[in-house]
Each structure stands twice: as structure tokens, then as C-alpha cells.
Design goal:
One of its GO terms (molecular function) is DNA binding. This is XRE family transcriptional regulator. InterPro entries: Cro/C1-type_HTH (IPR001387), Lambda_DNA-bd_dom_sf (IPR010982). The protein is α+β, with helices and mostly antiparallel strands. It has two domains: 58 residues, 434 Repressor (Amino-terminal Domain), CATH 1.10.260; 155 residues, Quinohemoprotein amine dehydrogenase alpha subunit, domain 2 (Lipocalin, Beta Barrel), CATH 2.40.128.120. It is built from six helices and nine strands, in the order H-H-H-H-H-E-E-E-E-E-E-E-E-E-H. The protein has an eight-stranded antiparallel beta barrel with strand order 1-2-3-4-5-6-7-8. A hairpin with a 7-residue loop joins strand 4 and strand 5. It is globular. The relative contact order is 0.12.
């Protein structure tokens, strides 16, 4: 009987997907071209990059040959238990894991669509403790524009009372600043990022953003959510709350 193809762990799959998306963006090749080079179906490539299916060893090896790079990181040495009780670096707020455990979880993330003024863009964000980094980290998935999926560190300084989701990729930053409701768990605030235009054109852009604990949405919709979607009204209500209460202010120029 043939030997079953080994599936990689969820963390390995996320790391490999991130590396592949970076290579696609850096080389400016299409996913279709990469799938053909790796002798994979486009459907398979889309599913593994979108987090809907784990990478297998065979699929990973084919993609490594097609890209000419190693996608698998060597095993890391076990992380020694932190003698300071799992405390984040000063630059992230010097918080302990126990102090921020209430932030950990999976969220439905909503913000205005940058391409359609009447639509809402929704995706999944997971916030968890990373023992190697000794801090909270976040990772996005279920994004319609999977090539722009973000991941990074979470800062929780005591002084401001806000939470910062920070992406720093080779010096290019994206910052999300939110406040969290202590009882229900939603987080509301502002995202500052870059809008991808034609060619290499990038334009700074800011917008309201809301993180909803996934248990609040019975059947979440991800991607570009239009007015006829069952979740549209709920998503729109939370986005308006961001500016109506207000958790974020947008001043006229």
C-alpha cells in the first residue's frame, strides 16, 4: 500500500504560507504560474495558502523545487521556561502572560472595503501566546486578498490602556490600535496601513476596524461582504460603533 503523505502542523503550514506569499509578491508572479511550476492544481495552492488545508510534505517539496528556496525551518531548540514568569519585552509593554490571557482568542475582523465604498471587508484574526517570542502574537486568515495576510506582535502598555497589533515586515509597518470592552470582548479602533494601487503604487490609508469574538457571530462571512449578506447589518453596526462612541476619531483636513 502507498505510504500516506505526511501533513505538516498548523504552525508549520502558516509559516510556509507566509513565506510563499512573500516570494510571490517579491517576484511578482501569479499563483497560477507558481502552481504550474510546482505541478500542482491552482485549487490546491489556493486552499493551502488560505489556511483551508494543511500543507503536506509532498506539496511543500514541490513548491520548494519550483521556488528554489527552502520553506521548512529547521527544528528549534526547546525554549527554556522563562524565569521572569513569561513576561513580554519592554518594547511591547512588559506584560505577563496571565495579565493578557483575556485577549487570546479568535476574532472576526471587520473594516471598510478599500475597493467598494458600500462593502465591508471581513477576515479571521487569531491572537495567541508565542513562547519563543514571550509575547502575544496575531495571525490573520480567511482573507480574500490572501497575498496581503498580516501577522505580527501585540503590544499592551499599561499607560495608554490600548492594544496595538503591529506588523513590521522588512521595515514596512502596519499598525492597528484598539480598545477592548472588558465584559463582552469586542475591540474597536483604527487601522493605519498602505493601499495597494496600480503597479507599485502604495498610498497611506486609515479606517475604523472592529474585532468581534467569533462566538458572537453564528455563521461568519469572510471576504468582501455586500449589503445583501446576512451578516452585513451586524458588521456595519460594529463599524459605526467605532466612530459613534467614539473609539477612534477622524479629523477633517
Amino acid at each position: 500500500m502507498p505510504t500516506p503523505d505526511k501533513q505538516l502542523s498548523a504552525e508549520q503550514s502558516r509559516q510556509i504560507a507566509d513565506t510563499i506569499r512573500e516570494e510571490i509578491a517579491r517576484r511578482r508572479i501569479s499563483r497560477q504560474s507558481l502552481a504550474e511550476l510546482a505541478k500542482l492544481s491552482l485549487s490546491t495552492l489556493e486552499k493551502v495558502l488560505g489556511g483551508r488545508r494543511p500543507f503536506t510534505l509532498a506539496t511543500t517539496v514541490r513548491l520548494e523545487h519550483a521556488l528554489g528556496v527552502s520553506l521548512r525551518k529547521p527544528p528549534e531548540a526547546p525554549v527554556a521556561a522563562a524565569v521572569n514568569g513569561e513576561v513580554a519585552p519592554d518594547g511591547l509593554g512588559a506584560y505577563s502572560r496571565r495579565a493578557v490571557a483575556w485577549i487570546e482568542g479568535t476574532y472576526v475582523t471587520v473594516r471598510p472595503s478599500f475597493g467598494d465604498k458600500d462593502a465591508i471587508f471581513a477576515y479571521r484574526t487569531e491572537i495567541s501566546w508565542d513562547a519563543a517570542a514571550s509575547s502575544l502574537v496575531f495571525h490573520e486568515s480567511e482573507r480574500q486578498d490572501a497575498a496581503f495576510t498580516q501577522f505580527g506582535e501585540v503590544a499592551v502598555p499599561n499607560q495608554s490602556g490600548h492594544i496595538y497589533l503591529v506588523t513590521n515586515r522588512h521595515g514596512q509597518h502596519r499598525l492597528i490600535t484598539v480598545a477592548r470592552l472588558a465584559i463582552s470582548g469586542e475591540m474597536y479602533g483604527i487601522i493605519t496601513t498602505l493601499l495597494a494601487g496600480r503597479g507599485s503604487l502604495l498610498t497611506p490609508i486609515a479606517a475604523p476596524i472592529a474585532y468581534l469574538p467569533i462566538k458572537m457571530v453564528a455563521d461568519p462571512t469572510f471576504g468582501r461582504v455586500s449589503v445583501d449578506d446576512p451578516n452585513y447589518a451586524q458588521y456595519r453596526q460594529h463599524l459605526r460603533r467605532t466612530t459613534d462612541e467614539p473609539f477612534a476619531l477622524f479629523l477633517p483636513g
